[in-house]
Design goal:
The structure is a single chain. The chain has 80 residues and is α+β, with helices and mostly antiparallel strands. It has a domain of 53 residues. 50% of the residues lie in helices and 14% in strands. The protein has 3 helices and 2 strands; from the N terminus they run E-E-H-H-H. Strands 1-2 form a two-stranded antiparallel sheet. The chain starts with 5 loop residues before the first strand and ends with a helix.
Length: 80
């Protein structure tokens, strides 16, 4: 597994460019589905019960998905 290295940032408004080596936040390595899950989890104030209701899934299923995401993030963090 290789990481994407960011070497240039550009402002679309003023066309200013900054070059260098930039670190991306760890959550950018999550899939879009995983990022959406994390966002909804935060918007529901961490309520897995509300998440389960919204997704139409059982509480244990949603809890397992959160645990999988936590494990993935810990693995990514330890590889930095």
């Amino acid at each position: 597994d290789t990481k994407l290295d960011v070497s240039k940032l550009t402002c679309s408004s003023c066309n200013t460019e900054v070059s260098g080596k930039f670190m991306l936040p760890i959550w950018t390595q999550l899939t879009l589905e995983e990022q959406d899950f994390v966002l909804e989890f935060l918007l529901k104030s961490g309520s897995l019960k509300e998440m389960a209701n919204q997704l139409g899934k059982s509480y244990p299923t949603v809890r397992n998905k959160l645990d999988d995401l936590i494990d993935k993030l810990l693995g990514l963090k330890n590889n930095d």
